Amino acid sequence: MSAQVLQGISVSPGFALAPAVCWHPVAVEIRAEKNTDASKEWSYFQSCLPRVQQQLQDLIKKTAQELSDEEAQIFESQYLFTEDPEILSDLETEIRQNSWKSIWAVEIVFEKYAQMMAAMSDSYLRERALDLRDLKSRLQVALSLGPQALQQDAQALNEKCILIAQDLTPSDFASMDKKKVQGLVLEANQRTSHTVILAKTYGIPTLVGVVQVFEKIKNKDLLALNATRGTLYLNPSDQTKNEIQSLMERDQVEKKELQKYKDQPILNREKEIVHLEANITSVHDLPLAAAQGAEGVGLFRTEFLFLERATAPSEDEQFEIYKKVLQFNPQWPVIIRTLDIGGDKQIPYLNLAKEENPFLGVRGLRLCLRHLDLFKTQLRALLRASSHGKLKIMFPMVTNIEEIQQAQSLIKSLKQELKVTSDFQVGMMVETPASALMIPEFSALVDFVSVGTNDLTQYILAVDRMNSDLADLYQFMNPAVLKTMEKIIQDAKSHDLSVGVCGEMASDPVGAKWLMDHGVRELSMNPNSLLRIRRLLIEE
Ligand code: PEP
Ligand code: MG
């Protein structure tokens, strides 16, 4: 086995040495097709079923550990359906007597039960329709892969590995056991995709834009990853292995050394304090953020609470989560962003229409204002939690004054309805050219703004943040983006509006320095970048 060196773009630094797991999304073709041997087809179905049952048992365990028993219930009920005698007997009839292939038999039987459930008046039973449909897809994937196709099943990663993928959706990544993922290598060149943002939060060394990975790397190939330099070694020599090992050890030492900066304040040229806050995606990120010296939460991306589930979290579930985040450190300001679905974050159970240009489509606040049930549930949970800490509610993807007026009036009426008396702030993201140009007008309607440089860059430059072919044009240091940033900062200052930055520019050494020098005093970033950026800004 000859050694090979592959290059990529580093998006999350660090080192790893582990075998490869190549991950392919599974596309299942679902069509009405007859089988040729009914007994054989039924045996095939029976041989695949235990795989799905095992998968569900793993998910029950993992969800109970990482989240709660209540959330694990979702998979418990799916598991019970796999043992339901009535469902199994119907499946046998469709496969044996009606001679359907098992994928189609699953479609017929599960749709029948899902439609029955969906028509129930009891909301609990209605929601079981979604569980049935989720299980249906899980079974169809297992049937299309076959009982032996374990290597495809990245959710059930058994060993520590470096994960190789063309692209990976945030929802697929969310369902994986991240402790097993020592490194991540993506062929797609997407530096600010939400999967990359998650990988950074988990501190997983990550490279993007590595070309032809699947042609070169096979499952179980040994890989050495230097994600700080952008290099991936396939079948590394002993010398390379030793180098990576010692870099991993040095990395650990550096992480300890950085701790001495944790409580040191950052002062800008005017001797004003610059605050560093954490971007989080779940309650579980909070201890890491605190350990890295965060001074608050500058962005809680709540849409991640809606991924990897069969139904949306209820008002009570959300309330408990927001309360926990607010109570974690009552001194911390906590910016909780309302749902920002759309773009690269899709949630199957919401059954949203497919769009030609999802990043220019029904996204963020636009989507919430069109799905008031979803939005009001979240706002109610937020308002109820507001007495537990320093809450700042923030709306994403704003383009119009009317959108903010509508959102504010919803908050006002819910506040009355729930008799909320606690104080909280309401702000918005500035991530569209329209909102960047209208800061004076918005300043009358919100308490603060936070600039989302990830989206702002793509919209100012007309460069899709997910398009690998345009990665070289996607630069937040582009003068057009910087000019826009200057205007936002100046307009916010002259209208007494607090302005922070929570896009990836804040965690980039050059970007963070530029922002501090231009008067931004609140930078929010993935917890793993906090100490390096603090050291840099202190030592500058
Ligand atoms: C941004 O656009 O910069 C941002 C912080 O939001 P997201 O990356 O979640 O779109
Ligand atoms: Mg954004």
SSE map:
Layout: E1 4-7, E2 9-12, E3 15-23, H1 38-66, H2 69-82, H3 85-97, H4 102-118, H5 123-145, E4 161-165, H6 170-174, E5 181-186, H7 194-201, E6 206-208, H8 213-216, E7 222-226, E8 231-234, H9 238-258, E9 266-267, E10 273-280, H10 286-291, E11 297-301, H11 315-328, E12 333-337, H12 364-370, H13 372-385, E13 390-395, H14 401-418, E14 425-430, H15 433-437, H16 439-442, E15 448-451, H17 453-461, H18 479-494, E16 498-501, H19 509-517, E17 522-525, H20 530-539
Description:
- This protein has 2 domains: 1-238, Phosphohistidine domain (Glucose Oxidase, domain 1, 3-Layer(bba) Sandwich); 273-539, TIM Barrel, CATH 3.20.20.
- It is built from 20 helices and 17 strands.
- Strands 9, 10, 11, 12, 13, 14, 15, 16 and 17 form a 9-stranded mixed sheet that branches. Strands 1-8-7-3-4-5-6-2 form an 8-stranded mixed sheet.
- Helix 19 (509-517) crosses helix 20.
- With 540 residues, the protein is α/β, with parallel strands linked by helices.
- The mean pLDDT is 90.
- Phosphoenolpyruvate (PEP) binds at residues 192, 299, 301, 340, 431, 452-455, 502-503.
- Magnesium ion binds at residues 396, 431, 452, 454-455.
> What value does the Rg take, in angstroms?
25 Å
- Please tell me the CATH architecture of the largest domain by its name: Alpha-Beta Barrel
Proportion of helical residues: 40-55%
Parts with pLDDT < 50 across at least 5 consecutive residues: none
Count up the helices. Answer: 20
The secondary-structure class comes to alpha/beta
Give the averaged pLDDT, no decimals.
90
How many runs of DSSP E, i.e. beta strands? 17
CATH homologous superfamily identity of the largest domain: Phosphoenolpyruvate-binding domains
- Give the termini separation: 46 Å
Question: How many domains, in number, for the residues?
Answer: 2
Most strands sheet: 9 strands, mixed
Q: What is the name of the CATH topology of the largest domain?
A: TIM Barrel
Which CATH class of the largest domain? Alpha Beta
**Which ligands appear in the coordinates?**
phosphoenolpyruvate, magnesium ion
Strand content range = 15-25%
Q: How would the global form be characterised?
A: globular
